[in-house]
Design a protein that fits this description.
The radius of gyration is 49 Å and the shape is rod-shaped. The longest helix is centred in the middle third of the chain and has 98 residues, at 15-112. With 186 residues, it is mainly alpha-helical. It contains 6 helices and no strands. The chain is 90% helix and 0% strand.
Length: 186
């Protein structure tokens, strides 16, 4: 009787040769996959570097544009500040002139009415009125002679020497102005 059955070795003529053939093909595919992957990684790195460079250029452009606008706005602000300072000085000079004129008018009115005070209250009170008139005249003259800067420094010195009195005067002035300009709301 003959054995016609095939042995397990006969299915593959040479199992060692078959395994090495599969391993060789698999290594080639791995090598090709690694090569393609490395190429993709390199391309991605190059793309990221290009994007980084482009972003840097755009950022520099935006930065210089913003700096230019900032400088332009700063220049405009300085111009407006100078204008406001000039206008403020003009208004302060006008106010000083009007205040001095008002004090001189008050002095003149007190001096003109001093004789009425003499008649109604006595000569002593008339002399007080004349002294007050002279004092008001002197104050108006001093106010005319001083510049705004000198008056500002005098005000600062007054506040340094007697801050309580300055706060009290400011409170009284604020109250009077609120009564004058606020009117009656009833």
């Amino acid at each position: 009787m003959t054995n016609t059955a095939t042995s397990p070795n006969t299915a593959t003529a040479n199992p060692v040769a078959a395994g090495t053939a599969e391993t060789g093909a698999s290594n080639e595919h791995r090598a090709e996959a690694k090569t393609r992957f490395n190429a993709a990684v390199q391309e991605a790195k190059a793309g990221a570097a290009a994007l980084r460079a482009e972003a840097g250029e755009r950022a520099n452009a935006y930065r210089s544009q913003a700096r230019g606008k900032g400088e332009a706005l700063a220049g405009d602000a300085k111009g407006y500040g100078a204008e406001a300072k000039t206008k403020g000085r003009e208004l302060a000079n006008e106010g000083k002139t009007k205040l001095s004129g008002g004090i001189a008018s008050l002095s003149k009115m007190v001096a003109e009415n001093a004789h009425v005070v003499d008649e109604k209250l006595g000569a002593q009170y008339g002399d007080y009125a004349r002294t007050a008139s002279r004092s008001l005249d002197d104050t108006a003259a001093k106010l005319d002679q001083k510049s705004i800067d000198e008056l500002t420094e005098d005000g600062r010195e007054f506040v340094r020497k007697s801050p309580g009195l300055a706060i009290g005067m400011a409170a009284v002035a604020g109250y009077m102005l609120s009564r004058i300009f606020g009117g009656s709301r009833r």
